[in-house]
Amino acid sequence: MCHVIVTCRSMLWTLLSIVVAFAELIAFMSADWLIGKAKPSSSEDVDNRTGGSQEPYHPTLGIYGRCTRISHMQLSRRDTLCGPYAENFSEIASGFWQATAIFLAMGIMILCAVAFVSVFTMCVQSIMKKSIFNVCGLLQGIAGLFLILGLILYPAGWGCQKAISYCGPYASAYKLGDCSLGWAFYTAIGGTVLTFICAVFSAQAEIATSSDKVQEEIEEGKNLICLL
Question: How far, in Å, CA of 112 to CA of 165, rounded?
Answer without folding.
Answer: 34
